Amino acid sequence: MIDKTFESIERAVADIHDGATVMIGGFGNAGMPAALIDALIEQGARELTIVNNNAGNGDTGLAALLAAGRVRKIICSFPRQADSQHFDALYRAGKIELELTPQGNLAERIRAAGAGIGGFFTPTGYGTLLAAGKETREINGRMYVLESPIHADFALIKALHGDRWGNLVYRKTARNFGPIMAMAAKVTVAQVQKVVALGELDPEAIITPGIFVQRVVQEAV
Amino acid sequence: MTNPNPSRYTREQIAARVAQDIPEGAYVNLGIGLPTKVANYLPAEREVFLHSENGLLGMGPAPAPGEEDDDLINAGKQPVTLLVGGAYFHHGDSFAMMRGGHLDICVLGAFQVAANGDLANWHTGAPDAIPAVGGAMDLAIGAKQVFVMMDHQTKTGESKIVEQCSYPLTGVACVNRIYTDLAVLDVTPAGLAVREMAPGLTFEELQAATAATLLPPVK
Prior knowledge:
- The complex is a heterodimer of chains A (221) and B (219).
- Chain A has 221 residues and is α/β, with parallel strands linked by helices.
- Chain A has six helices and twelve strands.
- Chain A has one domain: Glutaconate Coenzyme A-transferase (3-Layer(aba) Sandwich), CATH 3.40.1080.
- In chain A, α5 packs across α6.
């Protein structure tokens, strides 16, 4: 019997190694897998490369991981916010590397990794600082920039419900990066509000099929 | 450069003016900041689909106090609501809507717009500034029409409409129309065409406040 559920959040993140590339779902705090991030902080892996839309908000979740000094590099689209003080301090002190990428390129680079695409041409960013040094090509009279996929060792995402095969449904705009990050990582760990029995999720409504998910762990209630 | 007797649209009036140009049935993204005001001036009987890049179409107004839902936010991370008929989707689909040319209109703020439609709105280029781009570059190249709404001049009186942007670009030749406190301008192959001016403002005064050559309004 296939059972991807984990009883323990700690065990679900135990093998994240130093230097791993870890995608973390969420747009701001919506969809951020706070329990998995707390377990990762506790677990102690260092020199991580983190992929997220932002660079932490407030003092919890991703911001706490940054504050704990575990992140060597972050790939994101929008680090600077009113409450991104932990990232700001690390960045100004030269203690974190930033790869800034337009949000649509971030999403498509993640999706491309999950879909086996080796690179893609997009008009986004053409003629801007964020395309400096990148290959460009004119296609049907328009200029495009070559972008590369982003693969990850792990993806930590948050969903509403999951079953033992790893099928997931999400809640409202907390879905955001979850489905594409699940595709792009070798190991996807989904934190869910509730593990449900196989068959409880409507097959017509499943957003992430279980093939993209290796571990499902229920949040503490 | 300064108008001694300025006649300017207020920000609310600019928002209302932009709203006039958004037809029923349009799929529209309103950028963070000033452009979000446009939603307040879309008449209730006009069905317009508001898109938010974090994954919703059919975005409604802010919820009543106490009814906020942390899982239902807009691109500015403010709590919002979903209209009946609205939909949620993931970031891959959301940015395909933007980058694939499916949005009819996006409305963005700007630091500068150049006469050829170049847009600068993401980075001042200051060495100590932490850069952040979000979805601005995707909207700039992806929407069928890109509207900019902004003050015509900076607080120190410099024109934000220029021959060439001095700030780092968001997109090349991507802006179609500019709404400011002084005028409504179209970016055309012939140059910046004045469509409307604030009441009482002369073309000469508008030109004096603008660091790019303007084509006079067609009477």
